[in-house]
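[agent] plan:
  1. take the single chain provided in the ticket
  2. run structure prediction with default settings
  3. attach structure tokens to the ticket
  4. add a short note for the reviewer (M.T.)
[agent] executing step 1
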Amino acid sequence: MTTKTNSPVGGAKTKKGKEDAVVQLRIRVRAYENKILDASVKQIIDTALRYDAKIVGPIPLPTEIKKYTVNRASFVFKNAREQFEIRIHKRVIDILNPNPKTIEALTSLSLPSGVDKFILGKKQHMMQCFLDDGQVVPTTVISAGPIIVTQMKSPDVDGYTAVQVAFEEQKESRATKAHLGHIKSAKSSDNTVEGEGAFKHLREFRDIEEMATGDRITVSAFAKGDIVTVSGISKGKGFQGVVKRHGFHGGPRSHGQKHSEREPGSIGGGLRNKVPKGMRMGGRTGSDRITVRNLEIIGVDVENNQLLIKGAIPGRRGTLVEIIG
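[agent] step 2 finished; step 3 output follows
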């Protein structure tokens, strides 16, 4: 959210014919989802009306659309391209003649962010689950949390807003001195940080302010039916040829071809003196960060710290995954 004050911008005339200057506070709100944007706008308007401020808006602005094309599973089908777009919705709110109390209340607002809940976990295995209507769905079991907040990052100190969390305790003898010093400083600032003093994983989640050092997050923050986004590292397949990596059909099986069934074929020709950039060839496959969106939580097991998520999740068993709701 950005604010801009313009003074004067015209106004009402008094009895003497003079024009009073009007101070205008302009607030621009941007969000990826209309639900979050509407909630933020409503919170701003309610706060301004509480202090008897005059409001113009909200005025909708043109939606900014960014389109991307990503190659998906090209080792299976060479034309497997997925196109998606990101929409940024915008609103403008003008507040006329705000008093100091209005400005103070608006600057101290805690607007909702795009991340409502999050947790770290490890992929366990897949199984089948029966829904209430008898439908069978593939399900991935994730051992998630608990995670502990070890640091809060602010724009004044770090230049951005984020929360740092730790997951999976380990022996102090297996951690570096830098890691131990970081956890020790977090404990000294807030004695609520528990654990052995060392953790295997530290991760950050941006644009989150409503937390404090030492807070614990468990699977109880999620509920059945929640839609989440899961990110993880896919399985590493090592060096693979063009048939598996890019979906090449290989060479012909006749006309004197003896050992060319899985060969890439020509990589140049004519007057070329170098291999063109982007030429599809054999190489390392897998071990990429993959994000899967719009996955549904089928069940939550609070006692065993497990989440049941509908569908497949990237990675092998034991892969660290980030779950964002």
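[agent] step 4 note for reviewer: The longest helix spans residues 34-50.
[agent] ticket updated
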